[in-house]
């Protein structure tokens, strides 16, 4: 790797390599040597920018959790458009079709990583807690628009959707669920609070 490469570029190169390994081989294959080999750089590069490998992994998880802000804004903008079921099914597919499932597996797999994350993320699992917050905001917006019931418990519905979605997509090696399967889960979870479209 050439000297003088900006820290952000090095971080992104290493984060991208870690994501590819996670998606391809799972959390057990993720080592500092595997990351630097995948990134095409010397092993020392990772340790020049991060205190140790778990510090690197914690930064990766927090960086990817922080990127969910843009997805949350997009979902909020969908409120009142399309169908509630369709919007939620698409969101779950995008969320769990990405590296999110692999990152959740990584956090579960590594005790030291969980301990590091607790220093800045005291409750819940990054990615999943951000996803719950995103869906709560969306459902609240749809409730304000009258597309779901005024008494809908969005704080309960959101984690239920995330949990059900995670189970659907959890098999990293299998084929992703069909769109109809995702819509069926969403419909089942929110059927009691959906309001018919106004004519």
UniProtKB/TrEMBL annotation:
The organism of origin for this protein: Actinoallomurus spadix
InterPro entries: Homeodomain-like_sf, HTH-type_TetR-like_transc_reg, HTH_TetR
PROSITE patterns recorded: HTH_TETR_2
Domain HTH tetR-type: 8-68
Alphabetic keyword roster: DNA-binding, Transcription, Transcription regulation
Pfam families on file: TetR_N
Residues of the DNA-binding region: 31-50
Keyword NADP: no
Protein's UniProt name: TetR/AcrR family transcriptional regulator
